Amino acid sequence: MASQVVVLDPQKRERRRQILDAAKHVFADSGYHGASIHAIIDRADIARGTFYLYFESKSAVFSSILDEAMESLRRLMHRIDVDDPNAAPPQVQLRQQIVGALEFVVQDRALAMLLLSAGHTPDAEAAERLDQFFGEVRDLLRRAFESGQEIKLLRKVQPELLAAAFLGMIRGVVEHIITHPQPPTVESVVDEILFVALRGVLA
Amino acid sequence: MASQVVVLDPQKRERRRQILDAAKHVFADSGYHGASIHAIIDRADIARGTFYLYFESKSAVFSSILDEAMESLRRLMHRIDVDDPNAAPPQVQLRQQIVGALEFVVQDRALAMLLLSAGHTPDAEAAERLDQFFGEVRDLLRRAFESGQEIKLLRKVQPELLAAAFLGMIRGVVEHIITHPQPPTVESVVDEILFVALRGVLA
Amino acid sequence: MASQVVVLDPQKRERRRQILDAAKHVFADSGYHGASIHAIIDRADIARGTFYLYFESKSAVFSSILDEAMESLRRLMHRIDVDDPNAAPPQVQLRQQIVGALEFVVQDRALAMLLLSAGHTPDAEAAERLDQFFGEVRDLLRRAFESGQEIKLLRKVQPELLAAAFLGMIRGVVEHIITHPQPPTVESVVDEILFVALRGVLA
Amino acid sequence: MASQVVVLDPQKRERRRQILDAAKHVFADSGYHGASIHAIIDRADIARGTFYLYFESKSAVFSSILDEAMESLRRLMHRIDVDDPNAAPPQVQLRQQIVGALEFVVQDRALAMLLLSAGHTPDAEAAERLDQFFGEVRDLLRRAFESGQEIKLLRKVQPELLAAAFLGMIRGVVEHIITHPQPPTVESVVDEILFVALRGVLA
DNA sequence: CATGAATGAGTCTTCATTCAT
DNA sequence: CATGAATGAAGACTCATTCAT
């Protein structure tokens, strides 16, 4: 059976998970550079050498974490069905997807912090991988704007610019939710933001 | 006009500038942690010790850069005058200020990249200073929303959430402008974004 | 006999020894501050990082050296048995102990020099540890004087002052033995000093 | 007029004093190595370059401090007059000299601490100078013992060993006086120590 | 004479990665 | 497979000394 993912026997899979989880939390706590292999293997409760048995470098784990996240996100973002009369109205579908994606990110606090906090790192490989991640998300958004425009749901906009702006907005919102002492529900946040995005702030 | 800053003789001022500029570029290129004192002094073409003559630590230069940027931004962001009949209409004033601020950031490419790329660093002092910087900008935005609401220019919104969202949006836009191969003019970008922000994307 | 010290497998023990020995010599040669990690690892023929695998800092090795020395000294200094009719007479016991302790210090030339040469260092931790070491020795001496006084072996003296004086005397004597081109035997030195201490220099 | 000391005009003399005093205190506080030129010029309230106008290096000031101290000590230690029937009895003269010397050292607290705390330093020049200082004192003591022996005041001793032992004792006593919370008078200390030295501790 | 800005060798310490067991 | 001891490059920072003004 063809598979993009290298098939590992369950034991190794399990170890890999263990390391990925540990790394995710450490990256979240300390940022990419601040995360030490020491902290990761400590949390994963494995030996130093074992780490390098599963990942060839620090940036490799980082990459894998982003890979997994991207895949999950992609699974959540289907095409919005406009033609099927049985489907929910587009705006409802849109809202559902955004809520879903945001909830995915926000509920995995470690992932969210990792994504927010990992800035440019001196490690070129990691930096590139992160750029790529956000690039993909931005593409997702851009295509969404383009479709919306085509089907006349949205007015004429510059999709690329808007994608960049909205990606930033999402990051800002996620940060708001995560760092807030009494985090609002994702639903309430999406309602407010979506309203603003769709209709603007003008009275 | 009296200055808050300790007055240095022109020579020292000049050196300080030289170091600040070099540091800004290095931070922009490599992020806070990735920036080495070595790289900074290399770029500034000074000796190791000279650096510590002007700044007591790496995080101190970083701080100073943010201080200067914040001060400049604040100078650009006046209160919007609504009552004076001789003043430009509020929306025009708003647009001017945003254009001004954005232009300030974008035209200092190094500063822009520094602000975008500096993520969580293991250096607590630097991290805090950066948080503070964005916190101040967010406050500026929040107060703007609150005023707008009070004078009934804007509809009822959650100022804090919107401030976070718009700060993120601004970061996204700045990144877009900076990284774009053919960067659009700030004016055109502001027009598009402002329109969206005020009236939404709906057709 | 159970050991207070964490038990290490022989390999690590050996390495630790190797580093301690190297450090002792370097400290002896250059004093605490003058001793560089570089010199220590050079002498121990290990890599920089290896040093920090066994000791968490320069002051930690220093501390360990003093710990070991103190423990050895303490093992050499038993209470003097006055009552047991089978034991050697007190003066003989005293002489034996002093000879033993002095021989221990003198024969480990590096240790002796380290103890003599380490003055006030800017490193607070190391300085404190050294003070503590000599403080303990002084206490040993003070208690010895107090006991001697109680059992009427010694005449009325100020134990604290005398302890300080004799500790200094011992340092002086050790220095004499160590730096002398033809070092006298410890026994001969102890005989002379002990005689003076007990009966004075007057004809 | 011949003079060992280079004659300086009063202004320079004064400046020199100022620096020597400052340096003495700083050396006393932090030991030789821990003393920074910065601390010295700060305390002397002079500019960096000025320091090097008066002393060619850090070790040079250190040397000068010891020179001055040695000269003062020598002035205090005359030959003990045994023959002159009008002179005080030898033991009284001895006591006076010791009290005088000790008082000189103890009352100049900074000097005392400097002498006690300056251990082997990595600075070869300074280390040598310090050894020389104590060597001279030891010689003074040795000659005293030799004379005492010649005139049959003292019994047969090993002058060199005893000089080393007594020098150490003196250091111990000075340390005791200086570090004691309620320092005893020098006179009382000398009485006790001298008694012990002359007659021993035996009951 | 006095100044203090500039220098750069040298310090301790960290940490990603390798490899023999 | 797993281990963890060993490595050494690289990092931030200090400080005695020089020298142009």
Q: Explain this structure to me?
A:
- The structure is a homotetramer.
- By secondary structure, chain A is mainly α.
- The first copy, chain A, has a domain at about 60-200: Tetracycline Repressor, domain 2 (Orthogonal Bundle), CATH 1.10.357.10.
- The first copy, chain A, is about 75% helix and about 0% strand.
- Chain A has nine helices and no strands.
- Chain A has helices at about 10-35, 35-45, 50-55, 60-75, 90-105, 110-115, 125-150, 160-180, 185-200.
- In chain A, helix 1 (about 10-35) crosses helix 6 (about 110-115) and helix 4 packs parallel to helix 7 (about 125-150).
- The termini of chain A are far apart.
- In chain A, about 35% of the residues are buried.
- The mean pLDDT of chain A is about 90.
- Chains A and B meet through helix 1, helix 6, helix 8 and helix 9 of A and helix 1, helix 6, helix 8 and helix 9 of B.
- The structure holds a DNA duplex (21 and 21 nucleotides).
Number of discrete helical segments of chain A: 9
* Beginning-to-end CA distance, first to last residue of chain A: 58 Å
Q: List segments of chain A where confidence is low: pLDDT < 50 over at least 5 consecutive residues.
A: none
Percent helix of chain A, as a range, is over 70%
Shape of chain A: elongated
Q: In angstroms, what is the radius of gyration of chain A?
A: 19 Å
β-strand number of chain A: 0
The two chains with the largest interface, and their residue counts, are: A-B, 49 and 49 residues
